[in-house]
Amino acid sequence: MSDELHMTPWHLVAFLGEVILWGCAAWAGWTLVGGPGRLLAAAVLLVGIIIIWSIWAAPRAKWRLSLWPRLGLVTVLGVAVSTLFLSVTHWPGIITALSSTAAIVAAQFMDDRTEGAP
């Protein structure tokens, strides 16, 4: 089995955290804007975070950052989404965004530590 196809439980944790954080970005847009602009705000935030992720954080990104800068980027994105929720004091969103960010950071860190393990 090639290394490219080798999946670990950490990959699943990171992936689920990513999807949740992306959903939180859309949820934040929906929560922040009222009326007909809600859908547009949700879409813009969702597409924005996915574009940033696909350029610098995705496993097959052309310009994927090394571990520590990537973990910093993930943390900044998670805190940014949480801050959007904080601006409207939306605690479920804050907790979900920060929890998913912590899961992504932990999973990517642990996966990097165990990469050479049998």
From TrEMBL:
Taxonomy, superkingdom: Bacteria
Pfam families per the UniProt record, alphabetical: DUF2568
Transmembrane segments: 12-33, 39-59, 71-88
InterPro entries on file: DUF2568
UniProt entry keywords in alphabetical sequence: Membrane, Transmembrane, Transmembrane helix
UniProt name for this protein: DUF2568 domain-containing protein
Biological source species: Kocuria atrinae
Classification of source organism: Bacteria, Bacillati, Actinomycetota, Actinomycetes, Micrococcales
